[in-house]
C-alpha cells in the first residue's frame, strides 16, 4: 500500500500532468492509492436498458440504446449548443451538448448503434439528456455486470472527465500494479471472513455479481473502521498508562452541607447512578474523561454542581464552560442560587465582564479564593490562571472545537477531570466511533411529574387556528416562544423574516408584551430582552435559535417553530425541550409550508410521534449521515469515511472495534513484525489527525 501512495497519478496511462492536477484539486486524488480508493457511490446494471416510451416523471441516470437521426447546431456565441436527435424505436430523445461542440459533432455518426447513459429530463413533453456518456455497441465487453458510478464534480465533468473516464483510469492503474499487499494478518482475515484486499479492490471497481460486490464492500468497510478504532484505542490505552489524574476521594463539607440542606428535590435514580460513576472516576487517580448524555430537562446541571462540590471538598477549583453568554448567565444564576447557603464563591466570566470585575476574578482564581468559575470561551483565555483547577464541566460540547477544549487541559500541571455534558443523544455506533472507549454516562430518566410535550405539525394555512390556540394559553397566564430559523448564508433575509414575524405577533396580540432576541444584538440588549421573558414581564418571546440551548422558563408552555422544515431533527428536539418544564401541559407547533420533500415530511412527522431523543438522533443519523449530525462532527473531530456508513454499518463497527481491541491487547505497541504493515498503515492514515482521545 505504501508504494501505491508514492505512485503519482500523472504517470497512470491516460491521465498526464494537467488532468492529474485537476483530479487532485477537485477530488483530492494525488496517488494511485487515492485513485483506487475513490470508490463508486453506486452501480448500474449494465444489462438493463430503458426505452424512451417507458420514461416518466423524475428519472435517475439510465441507459438507452439506439441511433442518432440528425445533429443541429443551435444558437450563437455563449448560447451555442449541439442537439442530436436520438431514437430507440419507441420514441425520441434530444441529446444536448454545450461544450466541445465540434469534437462531439465529429465523434458520433447517424445510423450507428450507441448506448447512451445519463439523466433524462423533460421540457414541454420532450425528453432530453445533457452531455450523456456514449458507448458504441462494439465496446459491449465493458457492458456486462455492474458498472460503478463514481463521485464527480461539475468542473471535472466540464473538462470531459466522466464516471466512465475515471473507471478507465482505475483499470489502467490496476494493470500497472502486480499485487496489493494485505496489511492484515491471516488470523484476522480468517476470523472475520474477509475477502483478500487485492481482490476486494479489484472487485469494487469491477464487480461481476452483487454478492461479490457485497463481500468486497464488507472488506473495505471493515478496514476503514478497523483502522479508525485502532487509532482511537491505541491512544486511549496509552493515555491510561500515562495520564495521572487528581485523586479526589473525600466527600466533605461542601457536598454534605449542600446535599443535606440545600438540595431542592430528591435526585432521580439516574442522577444518583451517574454521580456514583463520576465519583468512582474521581477517586481512581486517573484523569476522568466522561461524556454525560441526558435529554433536555433531565437535570444535568445539578449533577455537574454536585461533582464540582466534590472537587472543592478535595481542595481544588472547578470551572463550567457554556457555549453562549445567555447559557453561561443562566448557569451562573442557577448555581449561585442553589449554592448560596454553603459559602461557595462562584463568579461569572464572559466577554462582557467589566475590567474591574475581571481583575477581581483573576486575582481570586490565582489565590484560590474563587471556588467555581462559570463562563463562556472567556475562561480558556491564556490570562485566566487558576491556583489549582481540578474539575472542568463543558456544557453542550458540540459548540466547542477540539482545539478550544484542549486549552483547558493546560490550565494545571495535572490535567483536570473533564465532564462533557450533552443533550444531543449520540447513537451508539457513532459514540463508539467518535469517542472510542471514552466513558459514557447516561441520564435516562426525567424528573418526576414532567409531562411529555404534544407536538403538532401545522401548515401556514392554519396560522389563524394556531394564533387562537396561543391566545388561549396566554389567557391562562402561560408564556410562548416563537422561533425563526437563522441560517448564516442569508442572514439579512432571515432577519427580515424575524422582524416581520415580530410585527405581526405584536399586532395579533396587542394586549400582551412581546420580547425579541436575535444573535446580532448586543449582549446587554439580548440579556435585557431575555430577562423580560424569564421574569414574566413579557408573555411572548420572538427569537432565533439563540434560545436553543439551556434557557429555562417553566411557565412557558408553547413553542412555535416557524419554517420548521429548515431545521435539523436534533435542533427541533432541542428547541422543543424549552417547554414542558413546568407542571402544565405543553405544546410544540411545527409551522411549515404544505409543500415539502418526502424526507422533510418524514422528519417533521417523526417529531410529532416521539419525544425520545435517542430515537430522534438515530433517525437523524440515518437521514443526514454523520457529517451533518449535530453534536458530533461539528465538534471538530473530522474524519471522512469513504465507504463505511455509521448509520447502517453498526454491526461492522462492533466487529472492527473488537478486532482492534484484541490486537492492541496482544500487541499494545503494534511492534511485532507481523503487525508492522498495520502500524505503518495507521501512521499513514492518521499522521495529520489530531490526537482526539486526549481532548474529548
Ligand atoms: P438539562 O439536563 O437540560 O440541563 P436542567 O439541569 O436544566 O436540565 O434541569 C431541568 C429542570 O429540572 C431544572 O428546572 C431543574 O431544577 C429540574 N430538576 C433537576 N433535577 C431534578 C429532580 N431530581 N427533581 C425535580 N426537578 C429536577
Ligand atoms: Mg442544561
Poorly predicted parts: 627-638, 688-696
The bound ligands are: adenosine-5'-diphosphate, magnesium ion
Number of helices: 24
- Shape descriptor reads globular
Tell me the number of strands. 22
If you average the pLDDT, what whole number results? 85
Q: In this structure, how is the largest beta sheet organized?
A: 7 strands, mixed
Record the strand order, biggest sheet: 6-7-4-3-2-5-8
Strand-residue fraction? 15-25%
Question: Termini distance?
Answer: 31 Å
Describe the structure.
This protein is α/β, with parallel strands linked by helices and 696 residues long. The strands form 4 sheets. The chain has a 7-stranded mixed beta sheet. Strands 12-13-11-14-15-10-16 form a 7-stranded parallel beta sheet, sandwiched between helices. A 6-stranded parallel beta sheet has the order 17-22-21-18-20-19, sandwiched between helices. A hairpin with a 2-residue loop joins strand 6 (121-123) and strand 7. Helix 8 packs across helix 9 and helix 10 (253-262) packs antiparallel against helix 12 (300-313). Residues 627-638 and 688-696 have low confidence and may be disordered. Adenosine-5'-diphosphate is lined by residues 265, 267-268, 271, 294, 296-302, 423, 447, 552, 581.
Amino acid at each position: 500500500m505504501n508504494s501505491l501512495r508514492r505512485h503519482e497519478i500523472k504517470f497512470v496511462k491516460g491521465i498526464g500532468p494537467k488532468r492529474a492536477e485537476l483530479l487532485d484539486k477537485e477530488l483530492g486524488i494525488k496517488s494511485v492509492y487515492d485513485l483506487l480508493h475513490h470508490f463508486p457511490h453506486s452501480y448500474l446494471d449494465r444489462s438493463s436498458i430503458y426505452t424512451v416510451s417507458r420514461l416518466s416523471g423524475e428519472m435517475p441516470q439510465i441507459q438507452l440504446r439506439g441511433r442518432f437521426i440528425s445533429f443541429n447546431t443551435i444558437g450563437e456565441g455563449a448560447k451555442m449548443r449541439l442537439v442530436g436527435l436520438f431514437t430507440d424505436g419507441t420514441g425520441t430523445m434530444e441529446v444536448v451538448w454545450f461544450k466541445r461542440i465540434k469534437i462531439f459533432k465529429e465523434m458520433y455518426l447517424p445510423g450507428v448503434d450507441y448506448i447512451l447513459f445519463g439523466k433524462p429530463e423533460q421540457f414541454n413533453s420532450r425528453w432530453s439528456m445533457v452531455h450523456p456518456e456514449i458507448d458504441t455497441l462494439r465496446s459491449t465487453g465493458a457492458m456486462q455486470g455492474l458498472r460503478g458510478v463514481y463521485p464527480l464534480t461539475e468542473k471535472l465533468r466540464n473538462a470531459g472527465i466522466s464516471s466512465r473516464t475515471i473507471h478507465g483510469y482505475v483499470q489502467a492503474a490496476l494493470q500497472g500494479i502486480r499485487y496489493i499487499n494485505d496489511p492484515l494478518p491471516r488470523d484476522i482475515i480468517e476470523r472475520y471472513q474477509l475477502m483478500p484486499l487485492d481482490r476486494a479492490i479489484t472487485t469494487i471497481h469491477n464487480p461481476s455479481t452483487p454478492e461479490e460486490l457485497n463481500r468486497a464492500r464488507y472488506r473495505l468497510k471493515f478496514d476503514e473502521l478497523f483502522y479508525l478504532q485502532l487509532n482511537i484505542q491505541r491512544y486511549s490505552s496509552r493515555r491510561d498508562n500515562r495520564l495521572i489524574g487528581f485523586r479526589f476521594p473525600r466527600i466533605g463539607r461542601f457536598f454534605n452541607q449542600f446535599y443535606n440542606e440545600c438540595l431542592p428535590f430528591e435526585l432521580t435514580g439516574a442522577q444518583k447512578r451517574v454521580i456514583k460513576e463520576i465519583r468512582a472516576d474521581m477517586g481512581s487517580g486517573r484523569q476522568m474523561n466522561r461524556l454525560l448524555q441526558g435529554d433536555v430537562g433531565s437535570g444535568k446541571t445539578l449533577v455537574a454542581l454536585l461533582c464540582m462540590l466534590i472537587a472543592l471538598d478535595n481542595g481544588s477549583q472547578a470551572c463550567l464552560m457554556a457555549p453562549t453568554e445567555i447559557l453561561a448567565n443562566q448557569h451562573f444564576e442557577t448555581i449561585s442560587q442553589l449554592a448560596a447557603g454553603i459559602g461557595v464563591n462562584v463568579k461569572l466570566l464572559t466577554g462582557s465582564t467589566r475590567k474591574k470585575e475581571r481583575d477581581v476574578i483573576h486575582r481570586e482564581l490565582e489565590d484560590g479564593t474563587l471556588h467555581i468559575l462559570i463562563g463562556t470561551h472567556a475562561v480558556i483565555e491564556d490570562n485566566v490562571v487558576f491556583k489549582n483547577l481540578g474539575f472542568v464541566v463543558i456544557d453542550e460540547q458540540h459548540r466547542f472545537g477540539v482545539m478550544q477544549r484542549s486549552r483547558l487541559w493546560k490550565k494545571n500541571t495535572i490535567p483536570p477531570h473533564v465532564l462533557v455534558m450533552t443533550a444531543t443523544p449520540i447513537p451508539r455506533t457513532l459514540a463508539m466511533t467518535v469517542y472510542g472507549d471514552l466513558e459514557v454516562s447516561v441520564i435516562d430518566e426525567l424528573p418526576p411529574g414532567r409531562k411529555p410535550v404534544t407536538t403538532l405539525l401545522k401548515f401556514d394555512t392554519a396560522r389563524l387556528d394556531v394564533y387562537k390556540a396561543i391566545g388561549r394559553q396566554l389567557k391562562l397566564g402561560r408564556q410562548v416562544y416563537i422561533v425563526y430559523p437563522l441560517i448564516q448564508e442569508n442572514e439579512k433575509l432571515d432577519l427580515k423574516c424575524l422582524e416581520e414575524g415580530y410585527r405581526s405577533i405584536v399586532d395579533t396580540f396587542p394586549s400582551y408584551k412581546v420580547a425579541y432576541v436575535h444573535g446580532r444584538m448586543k449582549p446587554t440588549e439580548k440579556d435585557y430582552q431575555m430577562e423580560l421573558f424569564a421574569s414574566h414581564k413579557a408573555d411572548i418571546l420572538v427569537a432565533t435559535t439563540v434560545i436553543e440551548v439551556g434557557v429555562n422558563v417553566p411557565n412557558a408552555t408553547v413553542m412555535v417553530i416557524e419554517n420548521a422544515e429548515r431545521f435539523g431533527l436534533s435542533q427541533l428536539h432541542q428547541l422543543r425541550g424549552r417547554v414542558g418544564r413546568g407542571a402544565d401541559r405543553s405544546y410544540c407547533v411545527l409551522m411549515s409550508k404544505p409543500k415539502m420533500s418526502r424526507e422533510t415530511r418524514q422528519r417533521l412527522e417523526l417529531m410529532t410521534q416521539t419525544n425520545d431523543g435517542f430515537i430522534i438522533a438515530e433517525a437523524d443519523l440515518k437521514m443526514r449521515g454523520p457529517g451533518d449530525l449535530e453534536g458530533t462532527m461539528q465538534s471538530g473531530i473530522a474524519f471522512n469515511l469513504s465507504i463505511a456508513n455509521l448509520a447502517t454499518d453498526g454491526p461492522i463497527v462492533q466487529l472492527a472495534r473488537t478486532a482492534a481491541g484484541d490486537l492492541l491487547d496482544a500487541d499494545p505497541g503494534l511492534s511485532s513484525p507481523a503487525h508492522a504493515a498495520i502500524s505503518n498503515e495507521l501512521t499513514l492514515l492518521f499522521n495529520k489527525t489530531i490526537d482526539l482521545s486526549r481532548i474529548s
